Amino acid sequence: MADKNIHKLVLHPVSTDYASESWINIKQGLYQARFIGKSISSENESYLVGDNFLQLITFLGCSPHIEIVPEEENNDSYCRIVLSELNNKIHFRFLARDVIARCPKCRKKLDSWSDWLNQWKESSSAVFVKCEHCDSRLSLFDLNWRHSAAFARCFIDIWNIYPQEAIPTEELLSILFEATGEEWDYFFSD
Questions:
Q1: In this predicted model, what pLDDT tens digit does every residue of 71-124 receive, in sequence order?
Q2: Residue 2 domain-assigned (yes or no)
Q3: Which domain holds residue 114?
Q4: Max CA distance (Å), the chain
C-alpha cells in the first residue's frame, strides 16, 4: 500500500549540527528501553513497537486508538518506528497543514517563513533572516515551529500517530540524549 497521508510523531535532535554515521547507539538505547521491538524490514530501519512503547509515549485525550500490530499483510495503518536515512545535509520536514513559525525573540507570527525556506532551499547559506516585527537577526533553524516542523539530519518517525495525539515522555528524550549526547525534540508530520 502506498504512503497515503500517514500521520507521524517525529523525533529529532535539536541541533542541526548533529550528524551520526550510524544508528547503532540510538538503536541500542531504544531497544534496551524496549521502545523498539522486532525489525520488520530488511530494506530500511523499520521496527515494531517494543513492550515499553506505551510507557515512553504519552497519549493525550481520553481514548486514542492505535494498532500496535499489523492485522493483515500490506496494512499501513499500524504504529511502527522508522529511522530515517542519516544525512550529511540538513532537511526540513513539516506537517502539511497548520505550519506556523514564530520569532523566538518577540514571539510574533512570521508570515515570511515560506519565502525564507525557499531561499534556503536554493542556497543553504541563506540561513539568517530578519524578523519582520522586531528586526532581530534570526537563524531559520531557531524559529519556533510549535511542533509543526523541524530542521535536522536524522529523524525517528513513529507512524500512525495523529497531530497532538501523543508526545514523547521525558524518559524517552533522556534515552535519546544518553545515546547521542544531544537534546531531542519532536514535531508532527504527514
A1: 777 777 899 999 999 999 999 999 877 788 999 999 999 999 999 999 999 988
A2: no
A3: 110-141
A4: 55
Is residue 99 domain-resident? no
Instruction: Assess whether 114 and 169 both reside in one domain.
Output: no
Q: Please give the model's pTM, rounded to 2 decimal places.
A: 0.92
Q: How many domains does the chain have?
A: 2
Q: Hey, what's the cell of 136?
A: 532581530
What are the CA-CA distances from residue 140 to residues 22, 70, 136 (Å)? 27, 39, 12
> Alpha-carbon distance 22 to 73, whole Å?
30
Does residue 51 fall inside a structural domain?
A: yes
For residues 19 and 74, state if they share a domain: yes
Cell numbers of 100, please?
A: 506556523
Question: Which residues are paired to 13 by β-bridges?
Answer: 184
Collect all residues with Cβ–Cβ distance below 8 Å to 86 and sequence separation of at least 6: 19, 20, 21, 22, 23, 153, 154
Rounded Cα–Cα distance for residues 113 and 103 (Å): 10
Residue 104, helix vs strand vs coil: coil
One-letter amino acid at 179 equals A
Domain shared by 86 and 20, yes or no: yes
The span from the CA of 152 to the CA of 142, in Å, is: 12
